[in-house]
Amino acid sequence: MTIVPPRALEPLRRRAGQILFTRVAGSEGPRNRALIHGTPGPRWFPPDSPVRRVHADSAMFIGGLSALLLQTLHPVAMAAVAAHSGYRGDPWGRLHRTSTFLATTTYGTADAAQAACDRVNAVHAGIRGITERGVTYRACDPHLVEWVHIAEVGSFLRAHQRFGAHRLTADECDEYVAQTARIARALGVPEPPLTVAELRARISAYRPELRPTTQALDTARYLMFSPPLPVAALPVYAVLASNAVALLPPWAAAQLRLPRWGRAERWTVRPAGRLATGAIRWAMRDPAQTGSVPVSAPSS
Questions:
Q1: In sequence order, what are the residues at sequence separation of 6 or more whose Cβ sits closer than 8 angstroms to the Cβ of residue 9?
Q2: What per-residue string of b and e applies to 269-293 under the rule 16 or more CB within 10 Å gives b?
């Protein structure tokens, strides 16, 4: 059996990391990375804090997709996304903007983080419309913003605890929720949850409002079965997508009519997810540091 030295794999790792980085961060990724990490000044979150560790791990690839699926179940939020986000016409542009926002608020200077939130608030202020059932909405509605926030935070944390390189302790999980609340308040949410228990209770409180609209089901099918990816990337995406569904609360997967695999999840789906996130973590790590770097702003 021939063993390939790790150094011989370095060109492959760099190339794979560059491809992933470009997909996630876009052509402006290197410039944004330099600004986010290189600009001096105070940050919202200290080094090695839970929010930095969670958002730096490749488990975010599964957590982010699971969050998107969960978010579709709020009919008003889904109507706003379908009408104004351009997620089908420009899915990569939306991903680039989202990843840059996440990296800026997590790792950028306090001024840059606040400015990023101010830009989002300004965009939201101009978005309004009417759902298919005649319900008027405003994207800046704190109730809708909070739903997006708690769906993301819950999904990111569940993904990290299942696929992250280093799981958080119970106290660190509470700290993660409290730290993300700093971002939520800057986006106009008056009283975001501060602990895991409060987060779960808040998600439960939204359940009477959630239902699988035609737009939600179409979006779920698009994300699961028609992603805008080259053929070579589809097998890995299928693993990530399968685990994103497995990460959903059972009631959410049922409403979206997405298949669950029962016992097979534990013995096939989850191990495949660990392999996939491990491979992504290897490709996007910074060899000059002991850990990985932000998924939205990796070094290559």
A1: none
A2: bbebbeebbeebbbbbbeeeeeebb
Q: How many other C-beta atoms lie within 10 A of the C-beta of residue 252?
A: 21
The token duo for 174 is 């509470």
Give the largest Cα separation in the chain, rounded: 66
pLDDT one-digit tens code per residue, 127-148: 999 998 999 999 999 999 999 9
Using CA atoms, how far apart are residues 59 and 187, in angstroms rounded to an integer? 24
Query: How many C-alpha atoms does 288 have within 13 Å on its Cβ side?
Result: 4
What is d(CA 56, CA 284) in angstroms, rounded to the nearest whole number? 10
Q: Which of 110-114, 264-268, 278-282 has the highest mean pLDDT?
A: 110-114
- pTM of this prediction? 0.90
| Exposed/middle/buried for residue 72 (C-beta within 10 Å: 0-12, 13-18, 19+) | buried
